[in-house]
Amino acid sequence: MLNLAVFISGGGTNLQSLIDSCRSGKLKAEIKAVISNNSKAFGLERARQAGIEAFHISQVVYPDNAVYINTMTKILEDKNIDLIVLAGYMKLLPIDIVRKYSGMIINIHPALLPKYGGKGMYGINVHKAVIDAGDKFSGATVHLVDEKYDQGKILIQRQVPVMADDTPESLAARVLEIEHQILPLAVELFIK
Ligand code: GRF
Question: What DSSP letter does each residue of 21-36 carry, written as one string?
């Protein structure tokens, strides 16, 4: 059974998609920890409702960087985590953890990387940029996280059409549906 740690910052619908896939037995994996930098993230509530240990870890709570990194690392080690999943996580993982878990960290991004990645490209900004560029397609990407963060090896990508009357919100909703489908598929790639 693959032990997962899922990092979130917001609503956690991608987390919920993983919870449901694990619960149904479709995904031979178990979420052992949910970690959020945002104590108000509804995703923490989703974890609690699913009986999964939820942790609020942020640099505000742990201003000392060494304590911050050690606290996060201890959870990952104690839970024997095999795969770290960033699902709407708005912070950069500490480089020590990116190195320690190299090849075992994936992230879901709401666009067809390498387009619309990098600084400032998160959430609704991505969909706004796609519409402003007049692109006919968008989509979602799951990629490995390496030291360059969102330039890691692409694992799965899936396209959606951009409609002429799309708003950033309507496109975001269409992309999010695809995210929920490809994230469990990406996790499955790590199951021996
Ligand atoms: C998703 O669009 C994800 O691609 C982006 O942030 C959003 C997270 O949504 N990184 P949720 O918290 O999983 O609902």
Answer: HHHTTSS-EEEEEEEE
